[in-house]
């Protein structure tokens, strides 16, 4: 229960409808989260319609996973001793997981989690000693992400940010968009889809995957890569929680790379924002567009070199209300992170940002 802001802040919906255009149900979810419940994260299972007759099926994700402000979760294979014979493990996506894009060409699902041979409680054990059982479906992947979101929320509330020890920072009440940004920022790329043909043990490898596709979205949820801990993980983080940005305004952050002893010299930035509900059947449902870019900069502020845009889109992404940029950085070089309100339908909106990597914060203009 929400209880006027004093109750649950993470909701999980392990159900979905058939693939359709943007409709009234999505408009309701999006408006509720945008207007009254910005502190809520709604996690939705993508559905299990992603294959037919051994063929991957795109355009199969249903609502509410296909809504703009929900966090849509697809299913990867699991790992460990409970795998079915022949399963390739958590670097591979299940074939049954429903795929995007949405009818207005937005990326979905947003992220994936184990959804095949997941061990769960057995409500019908009847005293036979079988207290758990193996289950399959995105309905079981979504709660894994919801549980991960609860840990991220606790991290901010207990003041672990940004130094990775309880109480080292101030307590933050994270918005739903910040939780969404953190989880998607740490997503790890899967390798391929694993098909299941005929007999349950007849497993073959399917198509390759890539980041920002409509099979895995931003990849497999990975908390270890999402936020720093004081345990030798050796990366820094910069965050903004429901920052207000006006139409046409640009917010910038300058960081200096410190990669000499860094195990992973990657700068990863994700920005997420809740968007207003759109019209039924909209061809382009995003109403408020932010653009995220990263570029090298000199000590005196001159920008130079390649401009990296959100979601690997060379022309910029004007469809999705989550954008991620990943850049390999070099020691002692400076990089400027830019968030620009490219085209808003109102005077201002709120966004959340997380940046992780081996860097030192040099300048913030936001």
Q: Please, could you describe this protein's structure?
A:
By secondary structure, the chain is mainly beta. The chain is 11% helix and 33% strand. A five-stranded antiparallel β-sheet has the order 16-15-18-13-20, with no helix packed on it. A four-stranded parallel β-sheet has the order 1-2-5-7. Helix 2 (138-157) packs across helix 3 (176-185). The protein starts with 9 loop residues before the first strand and ends with a strand.
Write a brief caption for the model.
It is built from three helices and 20 strands.
Provide keyphrases for this structure:
mainly beta, five-stranded antiparallel beta sheet, 366 residues, 11% helix, four-stranded parallel beta sheet
Mean pLDDT over the residues: 91
What proportion of the residues is helical, as a percent range?
Answer: 10-25%
Beta-strand percentage? 25-35%
* Strand segment tally: 20
Q: How many helix segments?
A: 3
Summarize the biggest pleated sheet: 5 strands, antiparallel
Counting helices, strands and paired strands, the structural category is mainly beta
- What best-fitting shape do the alpha-carbon axes yield? globular
Low-confidence stretches: none
Instruction: Tell me the distance between the termini.
Output: 34 Å
- The radius of gyration is 20 Å
* Strand adjacency order, main sheet: 16-15-18-13-20
Order of helical and strand elements: EHEEEEEEEEHHEEEEEEEEEEE
